[in-house]
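Putative membrane protein
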Amino acid sequence: MFVQRALATLIDLIVIYLPSLFLVQILAKGQGNSMLNLLAAALFILYNMICESSFSGKTLGKYFAKLKVVSQENSLSEIGQREFTKILYFLPYGGPIFLFISIICYLIKSKFLHDIVGRSEVIATV
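Predicted structure tokens:
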């Protein structure tokens, strides 16, 4: 499951985050690099929220990796909590620390930090 999730994330990063970052850098010349990263991350998180609430818990990456997000209530607020937690991974100095904590959570509970906060899990689909 870890490899499938990594693949899904990689697809979403390539298709959505990198173009968003490129576009934001073009439109916001002269701004700080950290702020641009956070803006692109916010766009990426918005994409995740829209896709997971509108397309049966699937982003483009999850669709191709045959995964989907399920949560206890499947409400927009839970999806928001889950996705908002991901912004921590993009913080300039704390991001790597939160990413490390998230990986430790996965090794212990088979859930990443954002899954725990959002009371959700990612499952394989057919």
